[in-house]
Amino acid sequence: QVQLVESGGGSVQAGGSLRLSCAASAYTYSTNCIGWFRQAPGKEREGVAAIYTDGGRTYYADSVKGRFTISKGNGDTSLYLQMNSLNPEDTGMYYCARDHTLHCSADPPPPLTGGTVRSYGYWGQGTQVTVSS
To answer: 29 - beta bridge partners?
Structure first.
């Protein structure tokens, strides 16, 4: 059973930083992708950043480029998201998700929107991030 457990969320003021962590269970598929997603109230879930094991590629949403950094720990069971220069638009529930289907080996990786987001098969419960102005 694939398990993903997020932690590290909280409340910060604009300009502050947070570091999210995702503890992941061992995964059967060596070629896979794992990433961070967020959902604000009344909005669709959107991709924030992802890592692709095939080639070590990373993807960032335009809204977080230069501010957020995704990384993995040793092995394949830890994922992090360092978030700097946070602004109120970053507020939302942040989820860790993992998949191994075709989009995970695409080069370049597809944007983390719409159907690609829905393609991720395994999701954590989420951790809340609130940024106040």
So the answer is: none
What share of the chain in percent tops pLDDT 70? Answer: 100
Could you tell me the two tokens for 120? 């991720």
Do 10 and 21 form a contact (C-beta atoms < 8 A)? no
pLDDT digits (tens, 9 = 90+) for 53-106: 877 889 999 999 999 999 998 778 999 999 999 999 999 999 999 999 989 988
Rounded Cα gap, residues 118 and 31, in angstroms? 18
